[in-house]
Amino acid sequence: MKNEELLTDDQINELSFEQSLERLEIIVEKLESGNVPLEKAIDLFQEGMKLAKRCHSKLENIEHKVEVLLEKDGEWLKKPFEYDEGAE
């Protein structure tokens, strides 16, 4: 993937979470540099929004799949994963 080329929707949909996040970081760096023409900045921003939405969607899917096993009365029960933001 070349960093200077914009990705199509199909290309974005084929990226892994890690690739999407890496590409999003590159876009943010370019936009923060201030050395991007306005039209290109708008295109990069739109691509960044698509990448951010894709990353968010992937995280939500994983969150729904993650389950914690708890032992109760000698039996293992599945319980949806609950993230505690204050635990960090």
From TrEMBL:
Lineage top rank: taxon: Bacteria
Keywords, ordered alphabetically: Cytoplasm, Exonuclease, Hydrolase, Nuclease
InterPro entries associated with the record: Exonuc_VII_S (IPR003761), Exonuc_VII_ssu_sf (IPR037004)
GO annotations of cellular component type: cytosol; exodeoxyribonuclease VII complex
EC number(s) on file: 3.1.11.6
GO biological process: DNA catabolic process
First-level EC class: hydrolase
GO molecular function, one term: exodeoxyribonuclease VII activity
Major localization class: cytoplasm
Localization of this protein: Cytoplasm
Family: Belongs to the XseB family.
HAMAP family: Exonuc_7_S (MF_00337)
Function of the protein: Bidirectionally degrades single-stranded DNA into large acid-insoluble oligonucleotides, which are then degraded further into small acid-soluble oligonucleotides.
Quaternary structure and partners: Heterooligomer composed of large and small subunits.
UniProt protein name: Exodeoxyribonuclease 7 small subunit
Organism the protein comes from: Tepidibacillus decaturensis
Source species taxonomy: Bacteria, Bacillati, Bacillota, Bacilli, Bacillales
